Amino acid sequence: MEAYIMNIIVLGVISWTTVFLLIRRIFPKRSFDFCNRAVSTIHATLAVILTFLSVQDWGCPVCPLAAKSSPKQMQTLAVSLSYMIYDLVCCLFEKRVSLDNSIHHLISIVGIGAGLSYEKCGSEMVAALWVTEVSSPFLHLRELLKELGFRDTDLNLAVDILFAVIFTLGRMVCGPYITYVTVSASNPFVIKAMALGLQLVSAFWFYKIVRMVTHKLTKRTASKNVSSKLFTPKI
């Protein structure tokens, strides 16, 4: 791994931590999770922008396959790797460790780290980064709205559904294709393994999201039925 990439990673971890501390200072009454999700939203937005800027061939965003990574791709991946390291440590401080989220972070850290070390597979990894982060702002917005007092509102439900749709299109439509081209190309084994692992985690999360949306829609329908019965005048 080149020295300037390592510098970006170290500076990135320090920067994400600093942003978190500033948000905690600006919003002292908000929870630890709220402030961390605010940082995560900033990263997700930045990651989507950087991935767009680092695509080499818009005719085939995952091309060239198994090729040497461009400087822009390396820098983009380094920024996200620094965030993943920060967020994994931050989640440990919160004392509510989610096993599936921890596995996702470890897979991402090992996968991106391997890509930076080998200096290849940049196109595939940047595409995977876009797919995984494009739905993240809506994921975090769901929880931010709950703490801001919008739990069980139409706005919260709309964001839930929007998140579910974007997640499904990204991770369950584009994701399998990116995984396939990554695994079938002549990439290092560790990168192939991490690509497959990330897709398996995405599939598990998709299952949980389907259950969440089904539950919320069923709950909303039942609530409306009860309300209509209560306010229906007796003749």
Question: Which helices and strands appear, and what pairs or packs with what?
Answer:
Layout: H1 3-26, H2 32-54, H3 71-94, H4 99-118, H5 122-133, H6 136-150, H7 154-184, H8 189-230
Helix pairs in contact: 1-2, 1-3, 2-3, 2-5, 2-6, 3-4, 3-5, 4-8, 5-7, 6-7, 7-8
Oligomer: single chain
Q: What fraction of residues sit in β-strands?
A: under 5%
Mean pLDDT: 91
- Helix percentage range: over 70%
Regions with little confidence, pLDDT below 50 for 5+ residues: none
Radius of gyration: 20 Å
Order of helices and strands: HHHHHHHH
Principal-axes geometry comes out as globular
**End-to-end distance:** 78 Å
Helix segment tally: 8
Beta strand count: 0
Write up what this structure looks like.
- With 235 residues, this protein is mainly α.
- The protein contains eight helices and no strands.
- The protein has helices at residues 3-26, 32-54, 71-94, 99-118, 122-133, 136-150, 154-184, 189-230.
- Helix 4 runs antiparallel to helix 8 (189-230).
- The radius of gyration is 20 Å and the shape is globular.
